[in-house]
Write a structure and sequence with these properties.
Strand order of the largest sheet: 3-2-4-1-10-9-11-15
Oligomer: single chain
Radius of gyration: 25 Å
CATH topology of the largest domain: Glutamine Phosphoribosylpyrophosphate, subunit 1, domain 1
Number of helices: 19
CATH class of the largest domain: Alpha Beta
Number of strands: 27
Distance between the termini: 9 Å
Structural class: alpha/beta
Bound molecules: 6-O-phosphono-alpha-D-glucopyranose
CATH superfamily of the largest domain: Aminohydrolase, N-terminal nucleophile (Ntn) domain
Strand content: 15-25%
Number of domains: 3
Largest sheet: 8 strands, antiparallel
Shape: globular
Length: 606
């Protein structure tokens, strides 16, 4: 992952580099660093941990260069120490890198044999010495980078500056995203347009295999064959304002509370209110003849996709294959002609998801993506983009993006079902109506959070927590467990309620809270039977359900009551209590809710 920036400016750039890095911290926050060209020399400052540590370092020991690069790291190779922090450099070359250089060991051995001395454990440092070696041979930075890049295997986006070259920065991408920003007698480089928003809205996205030579007067771009190429400059719509927390203590809380509004916006985008039916862009495929839908995604987006599978199979009667992208990309799964491949991604940059997209394209699938960032690589490589209107999501644990993904998937289910004749106009209207009530019900759930605060006291003492759900609520159990473990660090597992007796029941005792997602639907009684099995073994039950149901007389540790709602909308609605449970538990435990340890928001490495 990691975020990279670069500036060729007309005043000292270190503060601007730090500001841009702040917008990229969602890509990692293990360490940060910047390097500038000062009086012909390379100078750098680096610090372990969050960006504020680097800012402090710069206050004590400022940098004055007007050409510089910066980096915020999510550690892959080497511990998150200062010596492993980027930029890495030799006397002549400094590099920031996002991605993984897979052949770094061979390169390192070779370069060490030629006398290069390494002082970090990173794969990136091999790139520095490789370019330095090429530069020793040819004395031309552009040629040196070209030669070096040809020898790299893996995925990378790099920004490079050179001692003695104040008006030069070279960038290259293969696999990882990279954008160029055009300024007035200034040029910018960034992992995304958000980083560059305060400086310019004129953005050029580099394509696979591109190398760009930036000078203050402009950029020359070369394609993967080394030929000069023109890439369009577009006006970015990204706001230059840093999104703030409003009155909330954390971005996660703000984003949970934004859900009624952003769900409304996403639903309005896909629903013709006057007709009470869904209104989607043409997917460019005959949906009435659809043989299969293949869904792929990672993390929380994968669980949204899993809900989509339950919906599409049940209501539109089309078989759905779903797998996490890191598995599907290597499974060589056969995909029948005429299939629709659907990708779900908040960032639109997740490396594994993108790789599956390319595999599915090669297999002749029609590519549709549900993304929150419309300018992302996944969006740009899709035949049809179905945007979520969640707005920027800053908290690493996904909340509003998840429920907006569900809203888009629910509508898509209706679209496919209508085309296939499995959903009548009356049923469509009924289900649309159910969806339109979600924002109101969500607001009701969030009206009083005291019971979540109380529950947090008890949950914080647990070492393990189980989440159970059945049918379409099973993905919610998985998502609930993910949410809790990623921000509170309590071990949590989600299980299909019926699977309890095949293993996890062995864990149940009075110290293991079991959170059960059990709305009153047609499977409710079966889930309650599983709750009884937990109660019989002394487990502590937290029931999330509607109605006055008390799980057939079981003693409950808590009963989180959810308003009555149309069962079609349950997965969207029941996402809110599981988010609030995780949030309040993490707050009570004092963890870093918005930037939990070891995680990053956008995962652009395998
Ligand atoms: C990371 C994030 C998760 C996210 C997943 C997929 O793990 O921390 O919140 O669900 O990546 O990201 P995407 O941007 O593809 O939805």
């Amino acid at each position: 992952m990691c975020g990279i920036v670069g500036i060729l400016g007309s005043h000292p750039v270190s503060q601007d580099l730090v500001d841009a890095l702040r917008r990229l911290e969602y890509r990692g926050y293990d360490s940060a660093g910047i390097a500038t060209v000062e009086n012909g020399h390379l100078e750098r400052r680096r610090a372990e941990g969050k960006l504020r540590n680097l800012e402090q370092r710069l206050l004590e020991d400022p940098l004055q260069g007007m050409t510089g690069i910066g980096h915020t790291r999510w550690a892959t190779h080497g511990k998150p120490t200062e010596s492993n922090a980027h930029p890495h450099m030799s006397d002549t070359v400094s590099v920031v890198h996002n991605g993984i250089i897979e052949n770094f060991r061979t390169l390192r051995e070779d370069l060490a044999g030629k006398g290069h001395v390494f002082d970090s454990d990173t794969d990136t440092e091999a790139v520095v010495h490789l370019i330095t070696e090429e530069l020793n041979n040819c004395d031309d930075p552009v040629q040196a980078v070209r030669e070096a890049i040809a020898k790299l295997e893996g995925a990378f986006a790099v920004g490079i500056v050179f001692a003695g070259h104040d008006d030069l920065m070279i960038a290259a991408r293969k696999g990882s995203p990279l954008a160029i920003g055009h300024g007035n007698e200034a040029m910018y480089l960034g992992s995304d347009a958000i980083a560059l928003a305060p400086f310019t809205d004129e953005i050029t996205y580099l394509e696979e295999g591109d190398m760009a030579v930036l000078r203050r007067a402009g950029a020359e771009i070369f394609d993967k064959d080394g030929l000069p190429v023109k890439r369009p400059a577009i006006r970015s719509q990204v706001s230059s304002f840093l999104v703030d927390k409003g009155n909330h203590r954390h971005f996660m809380a703000k984003e949970i509370h934004e859900q009624p509004e952003v769900i409304s916006q996403t639903l309005s985008h896909y629903i013709d209110m006057a007709e009470g039916r869904v209104d989607y862009p043409d997917l460019g495929i005959d949906l009435s003849d659809l043989t299969r839908v293949t869904i792929s995604a990672c993390g929380t987006a994968y669980y949204a996709g899993l809900v989509g599978k339950y919906w599409i199979e049940r209501f539109a009667r089309v078989p759905v294959e779903i797998d996490v992208a890191s598995e599907l990309r290597y499974r060589e799964a056969p995909l029948p002609a005429g299939g629709l491949a659907l990708f779900v991604s908040q960032s639109g940059e997740t490396a594994d998801t993108l790789a599956v997209l390319r595999y599915c394209r090669a297999q002749g699938q029609r590519i549709a993506s549900i993304v929150n960032v419309r300018t992302s690589t996944i969006a740009r490589e899709s035949d049809v983009v179905l945007p979520t209107l969640a707005g920027p999501e800053i908290g690493v644990a996904s909340t509003k993006a998840f429920t907006c993904q569900l809203a888009a998937l629910a509508g898509l289910t209706l679209l496919i079902g209508r085309a296939r004749g499995t959903i009548s106009p009356e049923l469509e209207q009924e289900l649309v109506q159910g969806l339109l009530e979600v924002p109101r019900h969500m607001a009701e759930i969030m009206a009083d959070e005291t019971q979540y605060e109380h529950l947090a006291h008890d949950l914080s003492k647990a070492r393990d927590v189980l989440y159970l759900g059945r049918g379409i609520n099973y993905p919610l159990a998985l998502e609930g467990a993910l949410k809790l473990k990623e921000i509170s660090y309590i071990h949590a597992e989600g299980y299909a309620a019926g699977e309890l007796k095949h293993g996890p029941i062995a864990l149940i005792d009075e110290n293991v809270p079991v959170i059960v997602v059990a709305p009153e639907d047609e499977l409710h009684d079966k889930t309650v039977s599983n709750v009884q099995e937990v109660a019989a073994r002394g487990g502590k039950i937290i029931l999330i359900s509607n109605g006055a149901d008390d799980a057939a007389g079981c003693e409950l540790m808590a009963h989180i009551q959810v308003p009555d709602a149309h069962p079609f909308s349950h997965p969207i609605l029941y996402a809110v209590p599981i988010q609030l449970i995780a949030y309040h538990t993490a707050v009570f435990m004092g963890t870093d809710v918005d930037q939990p340890r070891n995680l990053a928001k956008s995962v652009t490495v395998e």
